[in-house]
Amino acid sequence: xxxxxxxxxxxxxxxxxxxxxxxxxxxxxxxCGVGADSLILDLEDAVVPDHKADARERVRDALVxxxxxxxxxxxxxxxxxxxLALDDLTVTMAGHPDGYVVPKLRSEDDVRFIDRALSTxxxxxxxxxxxxxxxxxxxxxxxxxxxxxxxxxxxxRSVAMMWASEDLSNAIGARRSRKVDGSIPDVFTFARSACxxxxxxxxxxxxxxPFFDFHDDAGLEREAREAAEMGFTGKAAxxxxxxxxxxxxxxxxxxxxxxxxxxxxxxxxxxxxxxxxFVFNGAMVDAPHINRARKIVARAAxxxxxx
Length: 307
Ligand code: COA
Ligand code: MG
Known about the structure:
By secondary structure, this protein is α/β, with parallel strands linked by helices. It has twelve helices and ten strands. It has two domains: 16-249, Alpha-Beta Barrel (TIM Barrel), CATH 3.20.20.60; 254-302, no CATH class. Helix content is 45%, strand content 14%. The structure holds coenzyme A and magnesium ion. Coenzyme A is lined by residues 18-21, 26-27, 30-31, 42, 45-46, 210, 238-240.
């Protein structure tokens, strides 16, 4: 259960994941044409309590009727403790989504609960066992952060882990989740790092939370770049205008690819000389730098458009 190789769900590019309110047909239709790698049709925080039942049916109908133009079709359900999650799954599974985003997780038991429910619903809807994926929101409660490794290991359906600070902020009584200069306070960088480490430990992707000020392109780009440089492979969006910026940032730049290729070329020559550690651009490089360069080249090749 420790590597991606054992996961039944094929990897795919998830640079941008656009949240769309599940009770808003106009936004769902609009979202299909914006080039997001994934859409997250939301039944949770973007839907008022009175619209929950209606939103489920709208999301199911959208899944059945709309052309998603290649975007992955994810549904964010309500938290387990609301009592709404099972109905969310039951109604929307009829629309054959690719997966579910599970919020406000507390422990591995929550993941297993959803996993079992999906197994039953897969049987009922004639889908292969284990084929519906999970994106885990694993930093929204303090318990989840303390249990994060077991949460990451709890289900082979899990394809990615996303961190988010707003609900955690409420749970711990923080008065704000960003410093005045926009940077992330310690307790939240801890959550962000925990997500990245737990995801990497089990071979799944780590995803960065949305940037809420959708008029601040420079702020979005800065935060996305920081996440990408740290190892996150994608970032949630809340507005279509954020999607192209995120898509661009989560593939290596042309300069990064050129440098990686030059390093690999130098490594080939160094190996031929019998040298595993050598000087490149004035600094020492060895195996980890070479592996990182290989990953950069592979990542660039996986993107649909050249950087
Ligand atoms: N998905 C799809 N379409 C969206 C969208 C989204 N997330 N956000 C905005 N749009 C559409 C609007 O409907 C509008 O379409 P139109 O020009 O055809 O009328 C267009 O993009 C421009 O939107 P804009 O006027 O700039 O924003 P808004 O005031 O309509 O919406 C928000 C602002 C924040 C309410 C909206 O972006 C939104 O609903 N975001 C997602 C919220 C969410 O899901 N939150 C939960 C996760 S944190
Ligand atoms: Mg939330």
